[in-house]
Please model this.
Amino acid sequence: MSVFRKSVGTLAAAASAAAMLSALATAANAADQVTITFANWAAAEGATRPGLDNVIAAFEKENPDIKVVNQAISFTEIARQLVLRVRSGNPPDVAEISGNDTFLLAQTGKLAQLDSYLGADEAGKLKPASIDGFKVKGKLIAFPWTLASAGLWYDKAIMQKAGLDPSKPPQTIDELMKDMAAIKKSEPDVIPLGLDTTNRAFSLISNWPWMKTFGADPLAKGGATSDAMKKYLAWMRDLAKNGYIDPGRKIGEFRPQIAQDKVAFLWDQVLVQGVIQSTNKMSDADFYKHYGVAKQPAGASGKSYSFEGGHQLVMFADGKHKEAAWKFINYLATSPYAIEHYTLSYEASLPPLQKAPSEALAKKLDTPVFNSFLNDIMPTVATPPYGPQFAAAATAIMAGVQQAVTGDTPIDQIAQSIEQNLAN
Amino acid sequence: MTAAVARPGSKTPARRNVERVPWIDWMVVPTLVVLAVVIGYPVVYTLVLSSQKYNMLDMLPPKYIGAANYHHLFVDPIFWTSLENTAIYTFGSVVVAALLGLTLALLTESLTGWRFRSVRALLLTPWAVPFVVVAFLFRYMYLQNGGVINAVLLDLHLIDKPVLWLNNSALAMPAIMVANIWAMTPFFFLLLSAALAAIPNEVIESARIDRAGIWSMVFQIKLPFLRSALFVSSLLMIISNFNDFAKIWAMTQGGPGYSTTTLVVYVYRLAFENFNFGYASAIGVVWLILLLVFAFVYLRALRMNP
Model:
């Protein structure tokens, strides 16, 4: 019995020693390991969360000295949350951001400048246009994660039913109006054009190319009352009066509808392909037969425009682990694994690289949709004058657009009220 | 708070006890501290902010500008539109919901037993639905394409093309008010049903013996008894609707144009979209004063009708 007790005691002592050693080793590893926080909306959305988790796991495996803590914040909340966290001295290490929010955040002066981290070699691999737009006073404040400009998506089946040639999407506003009239006549239940007419900053970004193609710039001095702006407002009113648009709806609400052949044309980003296919389960081949995308039909200016709606990654000046944060940013945006398993698979967007980093990826990027965006649409991107004024102006301008679309107030009066509210 | 009890044997008990009543009851200090932190501090800070130029994006300290924010408020057309919309939304919804609640309470008054319980449960259902759900429910019902309201009206040939309920400047506010009234009516129904049940049977029986008709019974007997319940519940709902954000934001975000922008929506946009906390606070102060007026009237009413 006593021998047994002794053995048990020895075993227990050995086990305790082993446990202590293991704990010490773990503590030593933990001391070496850097933890960075990543605030993003990709983790807040069921559709993208698995892809992001997978890429983060792959990054942590490749970089055992870095642990990434995912902080899910919804898309609509992220700018507010980040500004408040910056003000309270508690920013994350890395954050996902996009559109005007990137420049709102930059206004705080608390975004880290990325020029010193981005070497000349790495910069040379990026599409120049993908980083040029994110320079504030010559300094790079955000790194492009995904590129997602907007084009005119068209449903070939609906066009065919309306007696239109699906291989010839409208090239001008006049052609667009004729096509929509034909569609409305043959299929009254179909929404001819999906256009975001809500009152929010994103809506102004989305409508900015349409204003530009009419030659309008509502933020310029006297721009809201210019003839070009009035022509744009009158055109929007025509769209609503003829039943060509469904006013007051967010762009995301049209995506499932085009997947079900209930929207003929949709002004939306490259990522729509992923949404349509996840809704109607179409194969790639069937999708390219059924849908196409073209650059914006040109208006009075004779030029087509687009907007860049991709996502960026930023790091914060007060972050404690900037080297690790930069490594993570670079991995998410440019590593072949992240591009294949997240950018293409979950965001259906384009990477910021000039060239695909592998043959396999080059093959995946060689699709009719990506080619159309790369060759025809992305060169037409016109960046709006982002910043705090843009956010404030968005409410005034989109309120005017809504008035034009939903009421009978004379266009001149609406233009005047936009100008007055902008001045306020 | 502390009851003054005269001790036997004291010469001037009343005077001594008055002297002994403390100016503050220490038992309420924790409550006062909590109130000071969660209500007092934000209110005082809002007052201070309203006299400052303070944009959170600037990363600059707030700058004192006196009454400039209040001056700007008087020349800001959107503020006046918001105030007008708030008044229309609040009073319009409360008046209609109160009348509907009263009518339903009077109609179901004679029901007893399981019938009353079933009808009451059914009528109270909208009150149990969360406001955001109500907003989305009505938003989808109002849709131009695929909305059930337009579908029914089209099927009945009452309209020849879908109506833009939420996307027409003239219709958006009434459309939101309908959703609000639907959600609020059960509250009035519940309170007024309880008040009706509390009318003494003797009064009703006397009126019947005097051969009072239905209308005179309602207007001469029941309504006077319901007056205080109606008044207090209306004031409560006015205060609640004045702050209603969820329904309007979920249904129209204050649009189209500014046709459904109320004070709360405008303050939200100024503070949390433009980060202009100084000006938003000035509007918040005006809003607070208006609510305090209603709260004062409410407290007076409670005191007069215990």
Remarks:
- The CA atoms of residues 143 and 164 of chain B lie 7 Å apart.
- The domain at 68-304 of chain B is CATH 1.10.3720.10 (MetI-like fold).
